[in-house]
């Protein structure tokens, strides 16, 4: 039996940030559970061609860990190196349990602790449980008739098979979101034929990337310079919320800019029509790429819109809705993740055997997107309504840590055993979130997106400025909690 003061589920940036903050708070009795056989999360798992961050690297990093980035928008290999540097710098490798796939977790009211059942590593017990598995960790592959008959190769972008040589092959990519917009330009010049299946077009803005010179990289290693650059980028990006929520004229200007970019990069009027969204920019995730449109314009690339989409799959390829048969060697699923209803993939049983799946049956919700009544000492990193559409997710994660660590420190300092958010506090917070959401483009922009749960509630996004969330999480509000 393994017993720790704190358990962290997931070893990506959320788990790493939690671990470092625990160490800084003088809490070293913790363990990180990782379901895979390697440490690191998103940027060690997502190795598809073209993988890169779409937030400037100096901001998409942890405030306490500067790095000499080679370019403004780091590619996957560099993000992996940054991840590995964090792991080594803070001695996290010896604190991880690999291949510890969590099957279920249960609250023991008598012992005031969580029992975490894993598939291969037995049961772990802990006073405090931090779920940092992340919202983009459960890949989704849609079902099509006959897909099990396909004799070629298939995989999701999340599990790219590098043993398969796609060069010179006939390839189909299903999906046209952020991952597809990176894969398509990376492989289009190397394949014989590329079929892209698009359900709905996305708005695209140019990627203002640049390489950093030797002197600039030296400056990035200096904390004052790094901090200054982070804040300059942060406040520039923070103004985007004005368009997403407060100003229709502002979002109209951004949309006109996107339309001009589309016209400039796609001279073919028929292809341009297929690529023009019918919803307000920002309603779905905005793609940031200067190579996506040119790749779709290549002679060996065919864009199939919804009316020419997939009807079924057979042994040799894809049958389209309009009766065409496309022979392909490889089908790549670039179809995203269960980022709303599947925020936590394993069963969670709280006080009095209350099931998280029942609490979230209508739609996922949590106080500060982090804690829930009936689930003491449980904290969800990047939980419901903590996503951010205009800046770095790591800023939100670090803000959550202020609240989580304050909760843990308070319980320990008072010699108590548990902390639980009050039901009325969670309800008041959730009502505020969805009241404020009505004003945002994510709710009123005229689209259906992965930001929304099956109920229609926008679950992925926080409806305001990220500094507003930071202020909400800056310190524990004792009156909102039950301490025992």
From TrEMBL:
InterPro entries: FAD-bind_Monooxygenase_sf, FAD/NAD-bd_sf. Gene3D superfamilies: FAD/NAD(P)-binding domain. This is NAD(P)/FAD-dependent oxidoreductase. It comes from Pseudomonas mercuritolerans.
